[in-house]
Amino acid sequence: MTLFRSIIFAPLTLVRLLFVLFMSAYVTTIGWFWLKTKGFNRSLQHWVAGTWGRAILFVCGIKVDKNEIPQSGNYILMPNHRSYIDIFIVAAMTPAAMVGKAEIAKWPFVALGARVTNSILVDRKNQKSLLLTMKKIKESVNNGIPVILFPEGTTYKGPLTKKFKNGSFKIAADGNIPVIPMAIDFKDVNDAWVDKDTFVGHFFRQLGKPITHVTIRYGKPIINNDHKQLQEKTKEQIETMLKAIQSA
């Protein structure tokens, strides 16, 4: 069935792939000229991330059911992580500075995209990179630019969440920064990109689907100067929202 669908929707897959590449080139090019002429500001970030994310969701048939985010400006958004599709979703729905792995800088347009959206690429094997990342997150939030950070550190099929990493919660607790939990869940669990599945293989299978249904829920902001309690409360909210989505 998967092979049959791949053959039937091959033209759709190709069109979508070309559009993703075109939009990535378009928004980063416009963003680069904006950055060079006017410097970085929230409007630049909002336009680049939002335009890129919304356009890709639309063309790739990714339908999102969501509630409204309860706060703007000074916060760290922490979603669970199912797939690279999450990046399109959070960019479209909550344009902000994104924290990601340094390895993705090798992907087309990612390095430039990170510059024009003030996003942060971290090498987790490098202690200096980790410390610099913590500093950049604090600076971004203090300047009224929210940050998106996946606390699991990698994708997970679910149904709930993996163990959360401590570092991001220490940053939020030490800086008294509100954390907004976010739940992301796909109607088809096989839409998750996990284990040894190659990016290219999954990407082509995913683009061959006419429609992908995703539900996201924003939770209530949490402030706590104890990073362990902050971590527990964030994980609890996300898992409660995931259970509600899956039981609906």
Describe what you observe in this structure.
The chain has 248 residues and is of the alpha/beta class. It has one domain: Glycerol-3-phosphate (1)-acyltransferase (3-Layer(aba) Sandwich), CATH 3.40.1130. Helix content is 50%, strand content 13%. It contains nine helices and seven strands; from the N terminus they run H-H-H-E-E-H-E-H-E-H-E-H-E-H-E-H. Strands 1-7-6-2-5-3-4 form a seven-stranded mixed beta sheet, sandwiched between helices. The longest helix has 29 residues, at 10-38. It is globular, with a radius of gyration of 18 Å. It starts with a helix and ends with a helix. The mean pLDDT is 89.
Features:
alpha/beta; 9 helices; 50% helix; 7 strands; 248 residues; seven-stranded mixed sheet; globular; Glycerol-3-phosphate (1)-acyltransferase
Provide a compact summary of the structure.
The chain is α/β, with parallel strands linked by helices and 248 residues long. The protein has helices spanning 2-8, 10-38, 42-59, 85-93, 110-116, 127-142, 167-174, 199-207, 227-247, and strands at residues 62-65, 76-79, 97-101, 120-122, 147-148, 179-186, 212-218.
Q: Could you please say which CATH topology applies here?
A: Glycerol-3-phosphate (1)-acyltransferase
What is the number of strand segments? 7
If helices are DSSP runs of H or I spanning 4 or more residues, what is the number of helices?
9
* Spans of at least 5 consecutive residues with low confidence: none
- For the record, the count of structural domains works out to 1
Biggest sheet, spatial arrangement of strands = 1-7-6-2-5-3-4
Terminal-residue CA separation: 28 Å
The top-level CATH class is Alpha Beta
Class inferred from helices and paired strands: alpha/beta
